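Field: sequence (string)
Field: structure_tokens (string)

Example rows 1 and 2, in order.
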Amino acid sequence: MVYTTPMERPMVTFTEQEKKVLDDCIRTLHRLDSPFASIVSSRVRDVEQLAEIVDRAPSPNTDLFHKKKGRNKDTLAKKLLKHGLGHVVDLPTKTVLGHGLTVSKLHLFGLLMKLISTGEELGEYKETIEKEYNDLLFKLMAEDLYTSIVSDQKIDARWVTKAAHELITMWDLRTSEYVESFGLALRDLWKARHTLVPVLGTLLGTIEIMKISALLPPIWIDFLAHAAENEEIGFSLEEFLFDLRYEELALLRLKMAEMNVGVIDRNTAYEMVGKSEPTHNELHVALDLYKSFMGRQHTAKMRSYRNEEGPKRSLEEYFVIYLLSLQK
């Protein structure tokens, strides 16, 4: 395969872990004479063919006209931060195709997830399949978060440039320095969210309850200490914990004051706003988290556009900004 510059690296279609679990699953399906063996194999070939097309697309860091002051990661980052991200027609071809590749891989592992739930054939691979599926979801989430940060033209901080560099790396190689640590940290918080019984009272009280949880790793404890100094981050934490919008939580506090109630749990909170508690799929924990993130992220951006009260970012975005700000 030919690359336009000696510095370019080929994009990895499947990681070693992804390739191993796919090979193991296909081998098992063939051994059991399952009709899904050929289906999964065909899907793998489709992804590989798409990856070849993505890999042939020009790198976002490459100047096709070979100018002396051509495009590189630094110049592209500066352009993104100056002009923002426009419509899809303005994005590099490799960006659009690469995003589709990640989604295609997600659907491939999603198929394996469905096979797990409908039979015992792939039961022994359940944990590894879930991990690869979840990692792909977190890559999509990270790309969304980097895009959101870079698109916010009101920000002027060192970590914004770092976010731009990470986004460009994802465009080029479909990976990022922080995806693994970010994904692991989010899984820990989501697990704590379902294990703990959070209570709604004072904002500081909510943060303190999370800080004393033995389920959380040190990075979250440090982040929550930072959150205690920022009211908006605290409100985004409440949205994450209760899966209710800031506006609903504000209404709850008014009702609590009227009823002279100091604290309430999650179940009572849903009852008081007339909502049923969301159901969660144990087989798709990360997907539940991703859907929750997308809803909260969209609502936060609408508040920002309208200059309304409440958090202007999701908890995940605040957390990524915190991680980026730690880098020297």
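Row 2 begins here:
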Amino acid sequence: MQVFHLKVARAGQLNPAVVDMHARIAFRVDRQALTEIFSDEARWRGLGLSFELVAEVEGDDLERAFSATNHIDSDWSENADVQVMTAERCRSTSVGDLVLRDGSTFVVDKFGFSELPPACRPMAAEPDPEPESASAPRA
């Protein structure tokens, strides 16, 4: 399974439309907002709102993907069944984040998960230029 975190870039924090869209997803899990993002994801990414692939988790249990990418007893990047897919330190998975399993997309909801329509699937992120001090993704 792949875990994607909803992310607002620094530039997006200054854009009221991005801040509003982030709030609609992260606090209300607004399905219309998700549909709007995925209908024009490149535009939203350009404004500073995106879904970033942060981890691949072994298995197919959504609850396991959630708990494996949460800081519970230690940093989740140390979990044996998790492959970290970013060089940045990550927060815990929370409401509004996505899990892709067997070609289906699920949003972390206030309680459990909700399956999204097939059109709601994060696009591949264009790699950011890596600063010279950045390390490769951790295994």
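free_text_note (row 2): The chain has one domain: 2-115.
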